[in-house]
Amino acid sequence: VELMESGGGSVEAGGSLTLSCQGTGFMFGTYCGGWFRRRREKVAVIAKDDRGGEITYANSVKGRFTISIDRTKNILYLQMNDLKPEDTDIYYCATDAWYCSSAADHWGQGTWVSVPS
């Protein structure tokens, strides 16, 4: 199982970014897919699509971020709109055969999102 994120960068407040996570060795949908951020050594979920299509968002991103899966390409996306300086962080893609949480079995290398204030 491997995950490779891309799409991070620096964007002005109010702007948009789309993060991508290419999965190999498994299939999103059979495995869960989630986006997380790490702050002060604490990993927090941003959005996740657990097996069975149950989607969860952190309260801070509801209405602004959208998680989706392209099942033909096995790519997990995070569409990030109306970005704010407090969204600045490293974002990680994760997957697990059961349930996506900070204890997920497989992680990508992370991609940096910067929203200068």
Can you tell me the overall shape? globular
Largest sheet: 7 strands, mixed
Please state the average pLDDT score: 94
Number of helices: 0
Alpha carbon gyration radius: 13 Å
Helical proportion? under 10%
**Measured distance between first and last alpha carbons:** 37 Å
Per DSSP, what share of the residues sits in E-state strands of 2 or more residues?
over 45%
Q: Helix- and strand-based class?
A: mainly beta
Q: Give the topology string: H per helix, E per strand.
A: EEEEEEEEEEE
Low-confidence stretches: none
Number of strands: 11
Spell out the blueprint of helices and strands.
Elements: E1 2-6, E2 9-10, E3 17-24, E4 32-39, E5 42-50, E6 54-57, E7 65-70, E8 75-80, E9 89-96, E10 106-107, E11 111-114
Parallel strand pairs: 2-11
Antiparallel strand pairs: 1-3, 3-8, 4-5, 4-9, 5-6, 7-8, 9-10, 9-11
Explain how this protein is built.
With 117 residues, this protein is mainly beta. Helices cover 0% and strands 53% of the residues. Strand 5 (42-50) and strand 6 form a beta hairpin. It is globular.
Structure characteristics:
117 residues, four-stranded antiparallel beta sheet, mainly beta
Concise description?
By secondary structure, the chain is an all-beta fold. It is 0% helix and 53% strand.
